[in-house]
Amino acid sequence: MQLTRLRGQLIGAMAFTILVTGAASASAGVVEVAADEHVHHSAAPIASTNRTAMAYVVPDVSLVRQDGTQVKLREELSDDRPVVLAFIFTSCNTVCPLTSHTLSELQTRLGSERASVHLVSVTIDPEQDTPARLRAYAKTFNAGPEWQYYTGTREASEAVQRAFDVYRGAKMDHSPATLVRPAPGAPWVRIGGFATADQLYAELPNLATLHAAR
């Protein structure tokens, strides 16, 4: 209920802001940029999602986990588990909290099977998002050990963003998207827009089948 309420509030607020901004611009005969920089950050499709299968290749870059350990991302994602990947930054107060709440709800939905899925959040603001800051952010969403947060150098973060086609040049310009690799070697599924926990869970067919059989 809390997630549903948050989703409705955020989507409603963003829709209202875009509507008001558009109406004001139309009456003035000009196109203006909204004063709130987060409006542009969240102005991707508001009420719908789109699903595509993509042949993404995980870049061989080094990142730093929220526990301070330096790791190779390719090796981190090569542990035979399905992967659910999102891009966030901790100072964001619109898109990223909603994305993280959805992953938190997915984690709850997985229940005893949560250790079988690797949830991954990569910051697109590594200069601000230190491991300590990511640890605090992870606690906000009750992230368990299967949900890891990663930071690193600006170059490494941008390399990961480019590999998954989410790099837009500035953190305020990125659009909501969640990436799912249902099994090692399988194509990635990209859900553009605000995915729900049910949508993400449905992309994990082995777990979904096991759950349905119980």
Concise overview:
This protein has helices spanning 2-28, 37-41, 73-76, 95-110, 131-140, 154-163, 197-202, 205-213; strands spanning 50-54, 62-65, 70-72, 83-88, 118-123, 147-151, 177-181, 188-192. The chain is of the alpha+beta class and 214 residues long. 31% of the residues are buried.
Unreliable spans:
11-46, 210-214
Instruction: Bin the helical content.
Output: 40-55%
Mean pLDDT: 81
Rounded to the nearest angstrom, the distance between the terminal CA atoms is 25 Å
* Cα Rg: 17 Å
Main sheet properties:
8 strands, mixed
Would you count the extended β strands for me?
8
In CATH, the homologous superfamily goes by the name Glutaredoxin
For this structure, what is the CATH class? Answer: Alpha Beta
Strand content: 15-25%
Tell me, briefly, the overall form: globular
CATH topology: Glutaredoxin
CATH architecture label name: 3-Layer(aba) Sandwich
H and E string: HHEEEHEHEHEHEEHH
Count the domains: 1
Number of helices: 8
Largest sheet strand order: 1-8-7-4-5-6-2-3
Structural class by secondary-structure content: alpha+beta
